[in-house]
Structures are given as structure tokens and as C-alpha cells.
Hints:
The chain is mostly helical and 442 residues long. 79% of the residues lie in helices and 0% in strands. It has 22 helices and no strands. The chain has helices spanning 3-17, 19-37, 44-79, 82-114, 121-127, 133-143, 147-152, 159-165, 168-184, 190-211, 214-227, 232-236, 238-263, 268-274, 276-285, 288-301, 306-319, 322-338, 345-360, 368-377, 384-423, 429-432. α16 packs antiparallel against α17, α18 (322-338) crosses α20 and α20 crosses α21 (384-423). The mean pLDDT is 85. The structure holds aspartic acid. Residues 286-288, 321, 324, 362, 364-369, 402, 405-406, 409 line the site of aspartic acid (ASP).
Amino acid sequence: MKIQMQVLIALGLGLKRNWHIFSGLILGVIAGILLHKYNLHQHYVMTILTFVGELFIRLIQMVVIPLVISAIIIGITSIGDNKQLSKLGTKMIGYYAIITLAAVAIGAVLALVFKPGLSASQYISEYAASDIQATVAATIEAQRANILNIFLNFIPKNPLEALATGNMVAIIVFAVIFALALAKTGEINRPFVSFFESIFAATMKVTDWIMCFAAPGVFALTAVNVSSFGLDIFSSISKYIGVITIGFLIQLLIVYPIFLRIFSKVPVWMLYAAIAEAMMVAFGTASSSATLPLTIACCEKRGISHKISSFVLPLGATLNMDGTALLQTVAVIFLAQAYNVALTPFLILQICFLAVIASSTCAGIPGAGLITIALILNGMGLSPEQLVVGFGFLLTLDRVTDMLRTLVNVTSDAVVTAAIADNENEINYDLLNNPEEYKEII
Ligand code: ASP
């Protein structure tokens, strides 16, 4: 079948199946624009929308920790043997690295070609959030900490504290090490693994129930987010937002299809149709972690095996942030251009390298990518005032870019998972290529 035809069918079926979430998203954008236009931030409608959105996010966040731990334990113990595990782990890191390197390269090339930052210093100060200067300065200072310390903090001193504070990277590190040890213990681990299989099944069921609430949830979250910036921002800062959006589109429409073509035989449009719900919820919630239960449900119910998705997706939702890496690269080059910092080849390489680290160390929650961007900004030679104003400017724009970059982050998690599942013969193509047969999430 011609590729254009496949795209149309996949998009049509994806939208038909998810018309309620899709309508929630579009209506949310319209409502957000109106709320912004008529300055209704204090209106009681806003209070209701914030309540509904927060309710939806809290419900999905509620299942994330039990889901991540049980998925990792089941995933790793079901793969079992050491050789296969290290083969899969290495492949996963390699694939995630390829996709993230492509993202920073695209971000750097676009920013250097279109130069969105030239003569932008004027409107940077105009748009910079001025009421948070002290917090901004503290965030930048905190990120000045040695890079090695950031890695050290990945190891939880107390796993229960990591659980209680929701520190996802630390939880994942503990779960992976624990699961590897369990896999080595042989048959004796059976009761423990069965216990987590029950937890996993129950959290999936709860996710089904929560998804009944997806349309109003996505509507409310999108409306609240869009109302904080409105449409006028696109005309005033169009070049910067335009470069980022083009970068995201290149990732979605060129890089992932080429990646899947080279490393697997997964038809990209079918994959997009299979994960359409997760893509929309990622946009609405701006959180890869909160979207994770749904990303797993979409992959597993549409042909990708439990063994692969329960191992690769939870790690991807925390480590693989190519959308964030692209944004960080463009944002830092943008500020460098605005403040006339000489962009030597060495500095550009340094930005790209740090963007890979800063993105993969950020949590899958709203706004996390902006905090770790300070790690890159600190080495740029900007004055303390320029740092604060520049960071404040990025903060003002964060909502717009966060929804888009999270959609990209979640899509690439699924792309890598599908490629690995294909390599391991863990995809049911009769199901994946047949969207009419897809089971509803609910
Ligand atoms: N919100 C993004 C995510 O959850 C992380 C970021 O802030 O870039 O994937």
C-alpha cells in the first residue's frame, strides 16, 4: 500500500478511536485562547478547570510508582538470563542515544542556520518573568554542582525515602538492581514475582478506569496551559518557537520513520495509530511519567510484547528525553546569539554534549527540562544578570514548549520499544498492522 494511503488510514483510525480525547484537546486549545484573550485567569471557570486537570494528573500519578516497580521487576525477571539482559540493555541505551544525538544535532543545525536569537536581547528582558528572579538565581546556583554529584544522587541512600518523595530515577535504579538480583535467584523468586504480576495487572486495570476520565482531563489541562500564554506569544517570539516546532516535526516525521526503517520493519504510521492516545495525553499532561501507564497499555494491547515494553518503556520515560534535548540545545544557542557569545565549534559541541546529559538526568514531569538546562547555561560565559534574565525568559515560554517536547519524548520511547521488540521477534504484526482490531484501552 502506498505510504500516503497508510498515513491517512492510520491517522483516520487513530482519530476515530480517540475522537473524544482529540476533541478534548482541540476544545482545550480553543478554551485556553479565549480565557487568555478575555483575561479570565481569576474567573471561577479557571478554578474548575484547574481542579479537573489536577484530579486527572493525580489519578494517573497515583499508579505510576507501583506500575514502574512491578513492570521493571517482571520485565527483567522474565528476560532472566544475563546474556540476553545485557544484550537488550546495551541495545536500548544505544537506540536511545542515537535518537537523542539526532535531536541535539537537528536542534544545533536549525538554531545556527535560522539564528532565532539575533537581536533578541530586547524582548528577552521584556518577556522574562521578573517576579521569580531570586528562585531563578537559586536554581542556577544549585545546578552549578559538580556533574558527578548529579550521578551520585541517582543512587538512593534509602529506597523507601526515594519512594516516599517520588524520586523516579532513584526508584528505577533501585528496582533495576533489585530485579537483576532476583533474576539470579532462580525459581525461588516465583512468589515474589507473582506478587508483582498481580500488582501490575491491578495498576493496568486502574489505568483503564482513569482513562474514562481522559477527555475532560486533557481538555482541562490543555485549556489551563494554553491560557497561561495565549496565541500572541507565537507572533512575538515566532522565530524561536518556529525553530523548535520545526525540530520536533523533523524528529516525528523524518527521524523516527528513518530510524524504524533502518533498525526494524515496524511501519511507523501503524505505530503512531497504536499509541495515539498516549501522544495526546502526553501533550495534555506535559509529563512522560504520568503518561507511562497509558504508553504501556497502548503498546501491550496493540501487539508489542509485555516482556519488552515492561522493561524498555519505564526506563525510557525517565532516561530518554530527546524532545527535551532538542529544546535545550536550541534554547541555549538562542541565548548565546542574543547576548553575542562567540559560538565556537568547541562551545557548540559542549552544548550538545551537556544537552544529552541534562535531558537524560531530568525527571519526566512538567518543567523538569527547564531546571536541568541550567547545567548547560552555567558553562556559557553569560554574566549573572544575563543568566537570570535569560532563564526567566525561557521560564515564561516553558508551558508552550513543554507540551510539545513531552509528546516527542513519549513517542520516541515507543519507537525504540517497537524497534527492540521487532529485533527480538516480540511483536504481533497481525495485530499492530490491523488498527481495526485494536482493543480499546477502556
Ligand atoms: N515534561 C517533560 C517530560 O515529562 C520533561 C521536560 O520538562 O522536558 O517528558
